[in-house]
Amino acid sequence: MLKRAYPKNRKPIETYTTKCGYCNKEITVPMSRIRKSKTKIVYCSKKCQNLNQIGRKHNNFSHKKENNGNWRGGIMKPCEICGKMFWVSPYRKEKARFCSQICQGKTKCGKSNYNWSGGKTLEIYPREFNKSLKEKIRKQYGYKCFICGVPQIECIKKLAVHHIDYNKKNNSEENLISLCSICHNKTNHNRTYWTKYFNKKMEVYSVN
Fold first, then answer.
1. How far apart are the C-alpha atoms of 54 and 125, rounded to whole Å?
2. What is the pLDDT of residues 62-88, one digit of tens each?
3. pTM metric for this prediction
């Protein structure tokens, strides 16, 4: 025999008529919502509740910052990319620079990116940079990484062959070294540093 979800003699829900804490729209809500709310403030929708908890203006209704228990004051700053004013907490007023992640991402594109190489496309390796040349360079350095010294047998992949001056057309043996995949990824950043590093290390290597 199926049981009823609610008893027959269930009491009617006690309601309360009040105004939305954000847009002042008149709403009727169960008294249980009023009792559960610590601030005794209710909203007509999730949208109004969220808008009341952020430091912005919407639909000409001013934000009530005092209703947010975490509000500790703040300042308005212009975004360095789009110029839009946005709220910043006092402890972030020196670090905050952008109004959104979209604007922040624009600083890492094109000339702003540390890997910018003047807008040139990917260069194709010449024919002489083939498997036999790569194997010769690995053997020349004892099948070990030129930076960390890890042997190829302990690596998942074969050692990569790296151009010291980052010029793919310069395939002389003095310009090629063997690197493990981890160290090879490191050399893709701060190329000026790594070029100087390899040149100094090659001088020591050639003496020995």
1. 53
2. 445 555 556 666 788 899 888 888 888
3. 0.47
